[in-house]
Amino acid sequence: MQYGYFDDEHCEYVITRPDTPLPWINYLGSEDYFGLISNTAGGYSFYRDARLRRITRYRYNNVPLDTGGRYLYVRDDHSGTFWSPTWQPVMTDLKNYTCRHGLGYTTIASEKEDIQTQVRYFVPLGQNLEIWDARCTNLRTTKAELSLFSSIEFCLWDAQDDATNFQRNYNIAEVEVEGSTIYHKTEYRERRNHFAFFSCSEPLTGFDTLRESFLGPYRGWNQPQVVAEGKSRNSEAHAWQPMGSHHVQFVLEPGETKRILFILGYHENPVDQKFTAPGSNIINKKSVYPIIQTWLNPNNVDHAFEKLRQRWSELLSIFQVDTPDLHVNRMVNIWNAYQCMVTFNLSRSASYFESGIGRGMGFRDSNQDLLGFMHMIPERGRQRLLDLAATQMENGGAYHQYQPLTKRGNNDIGSDFNDDPLWLVLAASAYLRETGDLSFLEEMVPYDNRPGSEKPLLDHLRRSIRYTLDRLGVHGLPLIGRADWNDCLNLNCFSDTPGQSFQTTTNREGKNAESVFIAGQFVLAAREMADMVELIGLSDEAEEYRSRAAAMMKTVENEGWDGQWFLRAYDDFGKPVGSKDCKEGKIFLEPQGMCVMAGIGLENGYAKSALDSLNRYCAGDHGIALLWPGFQQYYLHLGEISSYCAGYKENASVFCHANPWAMIAETKVGNGDRAFDYYLRICPSVREAISEIHRSEPYVYAQTIAGPESPDSGEAKNSWLTGSAAWNFVAITQYILGIRPELNGLRIQPVIPQHWEGFSAERVFRGVCFHIDVQRKGNGNTCVLFVDGKKIQGNIVPLPEEGVKSISVLVEIY
Q: pLDDT band at 203, cuts 50/70/90?
């Protein structure tokens, strides 16, 4: 069952009925101002930090689930009938409803009572505001007397405090109205130098800024008293619950269209402004007037929207493919790249499954997100890497999360996730491979954001490697710490005796659990590190890293092999996890993918055996389960992982983030058919056909899909903000299609399915457009490359001479 369709020509997903199984959302903004918007106009907005600069209020886990957002109400003033053109919150029947989620914008349109309404929401490039561009058209044969009401609910800035500290918050709200603009200035008099504004392009019939006045004391957003009566109260909030609502009345002749603009924005007073003093509640309107006037001009709005479309066209043109598979083309060329931008911007901070008040930006998360983003705007990736490195500690460890507004590590979460530092190496390598910018390694970066502690970025990368080498267990494998990539596999605990309470590694001295996954990751990172330092002439250091990688590889094969697959770990008591001898959780996905990705087991057959075992035990119709069999009871010595129901999250769901590791691993052993099969099983575009089962958006990846041991097998969970986006993009583009940046050129080494006769691609790499044509000539994976008609040795195309902006590459597969 489908709820819409892909409009590939316009890079939009078109939703044709509002009652999607879950809210299907989009993101507005890609710089400092962001908004989440659902297909029925739900969601909220914030400036940079979803916790500390929340502009509008949103209640998670609400009933109905998606309640609160950017609502408009159309009222027929003659009959008194009113409705929401976005369906929510009034939820009356609408004709010709469509929601077009595009790249950085959403357009929702519908008809009711022969009145057609369309609203486009977007954030202009370089601006800290969003535009609601509303158009009402009279399809009747007689004139229509109409009212249009807007509504948003202001958040009192700190979203955590806003949702909990009611004894204070019911007494501090301040809103001011001047002309057609509503200013929200809560706490301005005390400590803030910023405010929000909500403006309308039309003269107002009325307004409201107090929620109870607008809704009525016992009504919800679906039947506001003001809208029902057709008359605003002109309320001004001083304490209690602040909101913003404009009331515009107008008459439309038959066939006539009325365009009304609403602007919701964030503004900070100039640093040198002289219009306020400490203790004042007078905001500097003079500095924001020009901004408001600019964006109430329809011509400026039209121009800004075209610039947004053009910007995305430019970004997507950096990598375009034409393959025999529609889903690959759609995801690589449009939606997967778009999702990579969103995950880069927000890490795991603000989705419909992340409230924006807890996690902030993840260290591990952001480094992985860069892997799928780096080709689009590498200079932004460079800055993100410097921000991440600045949260690193002098011992090489890292805060697991940091707040985007302050860029300081989150002490509540702390560190001790022992895989974190190695992700910095892998992300830095991705930047260098994309750009060749060796000066990056010389950038001075502090430790723990502490002035005076600055060291070159290369020093940070060295300490990341050393962090692992300084923490090896009795088997010679890396210690897991609080956890590795799997946050819920907490193997350091007091006891495995039933009935004793669980405590993590941070609560005891003994930290004995070891991770085979980190061992594989270390081999991968050490080899990348060797390539980087060799490029700057440090050949002895490069050899040391390669030696360390080889030693760890041998350790994994000796201590981490279970006979048919790689172990997951050793717990705090030295017992194997992910072994055939375990009652549950016999085999895990992560080490099979990561170890083979790192090249472990390729020479002795371990790699093929591990991947065949993974296919046999974990692969199902909806993807590869994270482990098999799932844990049916709670195991104290394993920690949080067994607290989930079997088939959900880390307990044997299909973790879409880790599935690409198996895809990449299969290309390492030359199995393009299986790699591509795995790709299609979790591809959102493919799963559109089973939307009633999948439930989440069919245009972006989810974190997980309920596994085969779940009664809801196939149902996607936690969409949008997930490492699934970057890793699936890497798997399909760099390993299956085989177009991978290297330090000395562009590698083109496809491992495609046997039934493909070939494909073509365009990839802009270091300012040069590579026109790539791949043709299958045989049944193997041996690639022969011709550059501008001349055969070259190997699979890496070097950069052409300076001044050459375009080259052609023919790849023949034998």
A: very high
Contacts of residue 442, Cβ cutoff 8 Å, sequence gap at least 6: 456, 457, 458
Report the distance separating Cα 714 and Cα 692, nearest Å: 10
Report how far residue 182's alpha carbon sits from residue 165's, in angstroms, rounded to the nearest whole number. 24
Q: Taking residues 754-764, what's their average pLDDT?
A: 98
Query: Are the C-beta atoms of residues 373 and 381 closer than 8 Å to each other?
Result: yes
The CA distance from 567 to 53, in Å, is: 44
Residue 529, φ and ψ in degrees, nearest 5: -60, -40
d(CA 163, CA 156) in angstroms, rounded, equals: 9
In tens, the pLDDT along 529-549 reads: 999 999 999 999 999 999 999
Query: Rounded CA gap, 594 and 599, in Å?
Result: 9
Asked if 639 and 592 count as a contact pair (C-beta separation under 8 A), the reply is no
Residue that has been written with the tokens 């001047």 in this structure: 178
* pLDDT tens profile 238-277: 999 999 999 999 999 999 999 999 999 999 987 655 444 4
Average pLDDT of span 110-136: 98
What is the pLDDT, as a whole number, of residue 507? Answer: 40
Q: Residue 631's closest CA among 608, 601, 651? A: 651
User: Which residues, 6+ apart, have CB-to-CB distance to 652 below 8 Å?
Assistant: 625, 626, 627, 628, 629, 630, 631, 646, 707, 708, 709
Whether the Cβ atoms of residue 4 and residue 14 lie closer than 8 Å to each other: yes
- DSSP alpha helices (H): ranges in 350-440? 363-373, 378-390, 420-435
Q: What confidence score (pLDDT) does residue 202 get?
A: 98
Using DSSP bridges, classify how beta strands 806-813 and 768-776 pair: parallel, antiparallel or unpaired.
parallel
Token pair 């016999």: residue: 586
Q: Tokens for 137?
A: 């058209």
pLDDT, position 710: 96
**Side-chain half-sphere exposure of 745, counting CA atoms within 13 A:** 17
| DSSP result, 548-566 | HHHHHHHHHHHHSB-SSSB
User: pLDDT (tens digit, 9 = 90+) per residue, 563-622?
Assistant: 999 999 999 999 999 999 999 999 999 999 999 999 999 999 999 999 999 999 999 999
Using pLDDT thresholds of 50, 70 and 90, give the confidence band for residue 347. very high
Q: Rounded mean pLDDT of the chain?
A: 94
DSSP per-residue string spanning 462-481:
HHHHHHHHT-B-TTSSBB-B
345-348 contact pairs (CB < 8 A, 24+):
345/27, 345/29, 345/30, 345/34, 346/27, 346/34, 346/50, 346/721, 347/404, 347/721, 348/721, 348/722
Q: Which of 448, 487, 677, 712 is catalytic?
A: 487
Q: What CA–CA distance (Å, rounded) separates 516 from 591?
A: 6
Retrieve residue 432's tokens. 């260098």
Buried b vs exposed e over 213-251: b needs ≥16 C-beta within 10 Å?
Answer: bbbbeeeebbebbbbeebebbebbbeebbbbbbbbbbbe
Compute the distance between CA of residue 464 and CA of residue 389 in angstroms, rounded to an integer: 10
CB atoms near residue 426 (< 10 Å) = 18
Q: How many secondary structure helices (H) and strands (E) does the chain include?
A: 21, 42
The DSSP 8-state label assigned to residue 92 in this structure reads -
Known active-site residue 487: yes
Which pLDDT score is estimated for 785?
98
Q: What is the DSSP-derived secondary structure letter of residue 454?
A: -
Least Cα distance to 127 among 35, 259, 245 occurs for: 35
Q: What is the pLDDT of residue 284?
A: 82
Phi and psi for 386 in degrees, rounded to 5?
A: -65, -40
Measured CA to CA, the distance from residue 307 to residue 5 in angstroms comes to: 25
Any alpha helices (H) in 472-605, and if so which ranges?
516-535, 539-559, 589-597
**Number of Cβ within a 10 Å radius of residue 700:** 28
Q: Which domains, from first to last, does the chain contain?
A: 4-312 (2.70.98.40), 739-813 (2.60.420.10)
